[in-house]
């Protein structure tokens, strides 16, 4: 029908928020901006909630998760709100216990190491993740955003899930990793089991993403945070095919997909083959070089070094402008960091970035 854009077998309303428009490479009145990990420990309001609740409690109580999501988006005055959740939540419904240990990140109690471990993982209980969709419903209701309303100022609501490689690495290593020895060993030596593991993850992740879209998420971001640990050959052989299936399936629910990884300069052309609408860029490659390398065939998100937020406002402004200049003249740039905000970040510097992005747009409009 008119007013809709065909998209991987589904239809996306044209004329949504400037964030969704930018994801689809449609022209926008100004570059949208939001931040990876915009709700988190650097923010006193989050710390206050965290004093009374564990991370998992916040994730599992839709009212709390929605509150944290909304507070961060409003305090920063950004163009998109990412739902407060964690990458590892789907582990529980697959039968894996984990916890977040203070200062150490996530710990999986019985890491997945054998074909039998993989055979035991369940894929029939994704319904248990419904609390994330319920939190999204609350955020959507708060921002009063019926779908298809042509208003650029509407806030984009972002749902998310992990990508198969990054989630598999947490399952197999039992936590964060430096060299991914267990993960790559399983990948090389028990390739059939590796593929079964990734397939199981995709079965759960597609159901999970679908719940989030049905709850009103405008866009889904797929986090492949640690894909940069792979060579291009290994990425292509062991990771790309399943990731492509996941992303295409999510797109068929009618939303654009942002595919994000860190240290991915050499992987970008292969990541592009997933047909993701947007690729997240880290700060190591200049945005214009990365985008040109992709033939401008998708939108891009990024790519300020999150540690720049510790500099004086003057330097931050220069870096923000440099990124905007690199992206100028082409639709399809979403301003963001190259990775998440770290805990000690001064909140006012994050707010400065939002201000700088807006000011620069206004300046350009006058010229
Ligand atoms: O505002 C937002 O971005 C939404 C919230 C969000 C969290 N985790 C909450 C969280 C998001 C998008 C995530 C995704 C996530 N979780 C990723 C991918 C994003 C990335 O940075 O690449 C990863 C790798 C994880 C796994 C994870 N969760 C780790 C490694 C850690 C510990 C690291 C740390 O900073 O301590 C977490 C814990 C976590 N998830 C926190 C938050 C706010 C901090 C812990 C706390 O509040 O106790």
UniProtKB/TrEMBL annotation:
GO terms for biological process: protoporphyrinogen IX biosynthetic process. It is found in: Cytoplasm. It catalyses: uroporphyrinogen III + 4 H(+) = coproporphyrinogen III + 4 CO2. Keywords: Cytoplasm, Decarboxylase, Lyase, Porphyrin biosynthesis. InterPro entries: UROD/MetE-like_sf (IPR038071), Uroporphyrinogen_deCO2ase_HemE (IPR006361), Uroporphyrinogen_deCOase (IPR000257). One of its GO terms (cellular component) is cytosol. Its EC number is 4.1.1.37. Catalyzes the decarboxylation of four acetate groups of uroporphyrinogen-III to yield coproporphyrinogen-III. Homodimer. PANTHER family: METHYLTETRAHYDROFOLATE:HOMOCYSTEINE METHYLTRANSFERASE RELATED (PTHR21091), UROPORPHYRINOGEN DECARBOXYLASE (PTHR21091:SF169). This is Uroporphyrinogen decarboxylase. It comes from Silvibacterium bohemicum. The gene is hemE.
């Amino acid at each position: 029908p008119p007013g809709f854009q065909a998209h991987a077998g589904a239809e996306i309303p044209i004329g949504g928020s400037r964030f969704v428009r930018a994801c689809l490479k449609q022209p926008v009145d100004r570059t949208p901006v939001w931040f990876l990990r915009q709700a988190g420990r650097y923010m006193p309001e989050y710390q206050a909630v965290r004093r009374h609740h564990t991370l998992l409690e916040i994730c599992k109580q839709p009212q709390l998760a929605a509150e944290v999501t909304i507070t961060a988006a409003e305090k920063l005055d950004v163009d998109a709100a990412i739902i407060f959740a964690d990458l590892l939540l789907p582990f529980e419904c697959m039968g894996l216990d984990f916890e977040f240990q203070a200062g150490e990140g996530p710990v999986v109690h019985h890491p997945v190491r054998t074909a039998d471990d993989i055979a035991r993982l369940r894929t029939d209980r994704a319904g248990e993740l419904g609390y994330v969709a319920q939190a999204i419903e609350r955020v959507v209701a708060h921002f009063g955003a019926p779908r298809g309303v042509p208003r650029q100022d509407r806030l984009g609501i972002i749902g998310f899930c992990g990508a198969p490689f990054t989630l598999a690495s947490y399952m197999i290593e039992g936590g964060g990793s430096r060299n991914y020895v267990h993960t790559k060993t399983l990948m090389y030596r028990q390739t059939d089991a590796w593929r079964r593991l990734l397939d199981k993850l995709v079965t759960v992740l597609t159901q999970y993403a679908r719940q989030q879209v049905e709850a009103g998420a405008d866009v889904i971001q797929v986090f492949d945070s640690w894909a940069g640990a792979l060579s291009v050959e290994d990425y292509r052989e062991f990771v790309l095919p399943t990731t492509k299936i996941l992303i295409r399936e999510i797109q068929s629910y009618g939303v654009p997909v942002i595919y994000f990884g860190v240290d991915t300069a050499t992987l970008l052309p292969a990541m592009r083959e997933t047909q993701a609408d947007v690729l997240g860029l880290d700060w190591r490659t200049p945005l214009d070089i990365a985008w040109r390398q992709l033939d401008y065939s998708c939108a891009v998100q990024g790519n300020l070094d999150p540690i720049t937020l510790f500099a004086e406002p003057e330097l931050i402004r220069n870096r923000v402008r440099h990124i905007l200049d690199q992206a100028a003249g082409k639709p399809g740039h979403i301003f963001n960091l190259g990775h998440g905000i770290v805990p000690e970040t001064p909140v006012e510097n994050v707010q400065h970035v939002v201000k700088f992005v807006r000011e620069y747009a206004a300046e350009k409009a006058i010229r």
